[in-house]
Design goal:
The chain has 2 domains: 2-217 and 290-320, Spore Coat Polysaccharide Biosynthesis Protein SpsA, Chain A; 219-288. 47% of the residues lie in helices and 16% in strands. The chain is an alpha/beta fold. It has 10 helices and 9 strands. The model is unreliable at 309-321 (pLDDT under 50).
């Protein structure tokens, strides 16, 4: 569970989550909270939870690295036969974990939540989210389930495969889809945030959306190429027209209007194409630095303070009394 400035809701979330897990009859489970550089009392509250119950574990970043890297860290530290990703705001109900486990025990490796309704969200956000997932799938070579977030259960084999992916600009739901294996949806109604404010304002959502597109498709490069080709063709047509009018007729309009329009058009296309190229080149540059994805300042509740290294498990059998990481 990634947490960033969630002091207003985290106690309620913790109580509801442990109540739900206690009803499942699991042989063992752990709840891993990842404090993503919170500036309020979130870390102190989480540390208190860990002191009270050893099944609670805490990973604290050195600064805010972002939601997707917090999810990544939680999966890296998870030790269960399956792991569930869930946010701290209670928009994704912990009670759905039971249905996820049932599907997992039926043999599915990934059980992802599909939102039938999104309570407490504006019409603008609902519309843009609806259009975004369809636009993403139209561009992407990897089919990503529609209307899904990161709320999902993943088998140990998926966790280990994700641990081997070191790309910096992470889009976890896309990576899980790319890995493959047996995946199935469950449907639920997303609730309103129980307390606090959304950690994804408009600009952050735009960045997150563009990251999903650029991480799973080179179609923007191809589109840029098509636009450049079309602009070049139009420019050649304009040049041919100007030459014919100038050399073969006595009728032409002297002035700067046509030239002005052409310069603006070509300049705009060039900047657009350069912007798309710059995004991909920038990602390559960031990846080439080989910096760690995140830096852990402290852990609590783990036997070792060092970051676990995932083993190369390729076929983990299901257990009749599973343990789980959340």
């Amino acid at each position: 569970m990634p947490c960033y400035n969630e002091e207003e809701v985290i106690t309620l979330t913790h109580e509801r989550l442990f109540h739900s897990l206690g009803m499942l009859g699991l042989a063992d489970f752990e709840v891993i909270y990842v404090n993503d550089g919170s500036r309020d009392r979130t870390e102190d509250i989480l540390a208190g939870f860990q002191t009270e119950d050893p099944r609670t574990k805490l990973v604290s970043f050195s600064r805010n690295f972002g939601h997707q890297l917090a999810v990544t860290a939680g999966l890296d530290y998870a030790s269960g036969d399956a792991a569930v990703i869930i946010d701290a705001d209670l928009q994704d109900p912990p009670e759905m974990i039971e249905k996820m486990l049932e599907k997992w025990e039926d043999g599915y490796d990934v059980v992802y939540g599909v939102r039938k309704k999104r309570a407490g969200e504006t019409a603008f956000k609902k519309l843009t989210a609806h259009l975004y997932y369809r636009f993403l799938n139209a561009l992407s070579d990897t089919e990503i389930p529609l209307d899904t977030g990161d709320f999902r259960l993943v088998d140990r084999v998926i966790v280990d495969e994700l641990a081997g992916m070191k790309e910096r600009e992470r889009f976890v739901r896309g990576l899980v889809s790319w890995v493959g294996f047996n995946q199935t949806p469950i449907y639920y109604e997303r609730e309103e945030r129980a307390a606090g404010e959304s950690k994804y304002p408009l600009l952050k959502m735009i960045r997150f959306a563009s990251n999903g597109i650029l991480s799973f498709s080179i179609q923007p490069l191809r589109i840029a190429n098509w636009i450049g080709s079309l602009a070049s063709a139009l420019a050649l047509g304009g040049i041919a027209y100007a030459l014919i009018m100038r050399l073969m007729t006595n009728s032409w309009v002297s002035g700067w209007t046509l030239l002005f329009i052409a310069v603006l058009f070509m300049g705009g296309v060039q900047l657009l194409v350069l912007g798309v190229l710059g995004e991909y080149i920038g990602r390559t540059y960031e990846q080439s630095k080989q910096r760690p994805l995140y830096i852990v300042r402290a852990t609590q509740g783990f036997e070792s303070a060092e970051k676990p290294v995932a083993s190369a498990i390729t076929n983990m059998p299901k257990r009749s009394s599973p343990s789980a990481s959340l």
